[in-house]
Amino acid sequence: MLIAESSFAVRTISFECFMVRILPKRLFRFMLIPWIVPLIMVAYAHGEAPPRVAIFPFQFHSKESLDYLQDAIFVTISSWLIEQGDIEVVERKQVRDALPRPETMEITEELTQRLARELDADYVITGNLTKVGDFVNIDARLVSIEKPGPPLRVASQYEGLEAAMEGLAEFAKSTRRRIVMASAVPPKEEKPPPESTITSIYEKVLEGVRGERPPPPQPVYGLETFHTVSTFLRGVDLGDVDGDGANEIVLIDKRTLWIYKQTGGRLRLFRKIEGHPNDHFLTLDVADVNRNGFAEIIVTNMRPRGLRSFILEFEENRIKKITDREKWFFRVVDSPAVGTLLVGQEIAVNRQPIGGIYPFVWKGKTFHPEKKPLTKKEIPVFSFNVGDLDGRGEASIVYVDYHDRLRVLNRDGGYRWESSDAYGGTDIFYSLGSRGSKPDEKRIYIPPRLLVRDLDGDGASEIIVSRNKFKLDMVERLRIYDRARLVDLAWRGMGLFENWGTPEISGYISDFQLKDIDGDGRDEIVITAVSKGILRSGASSSLLVYELF
User: Fold this and answer.
1) 3-class secondary structure, 110
2) Using 50, 70 and 90 to split pLDDT, how confident is the model at 452?
3) In the chain, what are the helix, strand and coil shares in percent, each to the nearest 5?
4) Hey, is 271 helix, strand or coil?
5) Is the pLDDT of residue 420 over 50?
6) What is the C-alpha separation between 38 and 20, in angstroms, rounded?
7) Among residues 90, 68, 93, which one has the least CA distance to residue 14?
8) Strand 462-470 to strand 481-491: parallel, antiparallel, or no bridges (unpaired)?
9) Residues 121-152: b if buried by 16+ CB within 10 A, e if exposed
10) Other C-beta atoms within 10 Å of 43: how many?
11) 268-278 in b/e burial notation, b at 16+ Cβ within 10 A?
């Protein structure tokens, strides 16, 4: 596996000490439950009853006895849920009495659904805890009894019981937000920007069969755009931003960020965030990188005085910054080889990316870089990815360099393959000067996103990358877009060869992603395509969706 073993300091602390240092405040909250519950019932006496949650005993998998953790788990989760007095937790004794004997029997989803109705609970929380040595795996779920939708789930590994309990606290916070949001009156719907044109059908272009090499793509329902705006869109990504179980669509241009919801083939504006006049958005990623059930929005942002990247998250019905003023170029890597991972690269004094690529971890209330890089090679983080290309269990580094050449390195950074043809191609750049673009200032063009996926399920990952063709090839200060397409490449013996590609479009692909946009459980290719592409003057951008069959 490519990732170097993480090296971060973890305090050595016994569980007994953890109970003394961490839990007293939680236990104090829990001791107040008998007094808080009547107050909750009085508050709801003249209105709708508060949502009611049943926390079932976690199931343990360990050589040692962990029964003493049940109290700590119940207190940790319930104390966060009842904190504001708007959620009721079923008494632990009621849940235990409702469980059939023996108590060691497996707690199944069917059993919890039945008992939840007997306990008059709206939600149930279940979980498994596995401890092997010092490492603790927790798999916890919040399931709604009556309301449809996927469960809120956290499945993470922690080093030590203290870290595991802190992870459960984060799960409890996410649980609380999900329940409060589901019970709240929906906010007033915002109108889309006046320049937007919304159509009613996806553009479905790719046709083939998963598991086999697709034939040349053919239009299925003709060519129709999903969304068009009069601006130069720089990025697109999707993720469950508000925790409702459905992916939102996030778009950026130079200094504006839009979040859309998709229902019935139509887009509805959910949030719009205007940046500072000096902002210069370079990349966009949307992923739940802190594992709390809500996808974060990660933006690499350049200001005249240097990087000022930030990370947004939906909390208490608003979008807020959880990380700001970061001096890192960010990207999210998502592949079978490493999972979903936030990575970053530092900026040099001359404003160029410098050094290796570092994984970031969530500690406390923000993200921190690990001490060991994924690779020490100075390669662009913007197109960096990792994949097992030949199905032998060994990860390779793949990226598009600053000269639009696709490169493959082995896990140690050694040369493996380089394309002779150009891939990627971009008109997203920033100036190395500190005060805007002057004629003599050098530009850094941002290599585009590169995805690694195993679409046919054969154990070997493919590479999906854009190919933008310019009428004026690689002219430093003038690029006129001609044609663009996406291609899927597979490793065959000694190099990468094309599996399939989308039809060529007129203009330029500024970004793309492969995620589920319509909630059907299948990933679609989502593209931001820029037309009228002489520089950025009078640019028009379209959101295109290609269905994979």
Assistant:
1) helix
2) very high
3) 15, 40, 45
4) strand
5) yes
6) 29
7) 68
8) antiparallel
9) bbbbbbbebebeeeebebebbbbbbeeeeebb
10) 12
11) ebbbebebeee
Reported as a single tens digit per residue, the pLDDT across 76-104 is 999 989 888 889 999 999 998 898 875 55
Q: Is 486 helix (H, G, I), strand (E, B) or coil?
A: strand
Burial category of 523 from C-beta neighbours within 10 Å (exposed 0-12, middle 13-18, buried 19 and up): middle
Range with the poorest average pLDDT among 152-156, 354-358, 514-518: 152-156
Residue 17 makes CB contacts below 8 A (sequence gap 6+) with: none
Peptide bond before residue 102 is cis, with ω within 30 degrees of 0: yes
Give whole-number Cα distances, 235 to 206, 255, 257, in Å.
22, 11, 9
pTM for the structure as a whole: 0.64
Determine how β-strand 59-61 pairs with β-strand 123-132.
parallel
Report the first-to-last Cα separation within the chain, whole angstroms.
31
Q: Quote the tokens at residue 148.
A: 């449809």
pLDDT at 46 over 50: no
What are the tokens at 302? 């350049």
Cβ partners under 8 Å of residue 15, min gap 6 = 161, 162
Which tokens sit at 158?
């922690």
DSSP bridge partners of 453: 462
Residues 332-368, buried b or exposed e (16+ Cβ, 10 A)? Answer: bbbbebbeebbbbbbbeeebebeebbbbbebeeeebe
Reading the block at residue 78, the tokens are 């319930």
What is the spatial distance between Cα 236 and Cα 39, in angstroms, rounded to a whole number? Answer: 46
Instruction: Dump pLDDT digits (tens) for 213-224.
Output: 333 333 233 233
> Which residue reads 């208490």 in tokens?
316
Give every CB contact of residue 502 below 8 A, 6+ residues apart in sequence: 205, 206, 217, 485, 486, 487, 525, 546
Task: Count Cβ atoms below 10 Å from residue 230 Cβ, excluding itself.
Answer: 14
Q: Provide the pLDDT for residue 438.
A: 54
Alpha carbons 73 and 78: distance in angstroms, whole number = 8
In 41-175, DSSP assigns E strands to 52-55, 59-61, 88-89, 123-132, 135-144, 152-159
List residues bridging with 424 in a β-sheet.
467
Which stretch of DSSP H or E encloses residue 377? none
Burial class (CB in 10 A: 0-12, 13-18, 19+), 282: buried
| Confidence (pLDDT) at 45 | 38
Cα 89 to Cα 176: distance, rounded to the nearest angstrom: 11
Return the bridge partners of 417, or none. Answer: 408
Of all helices (H) and strands (E), which one includes residue 431?
strand 429-431
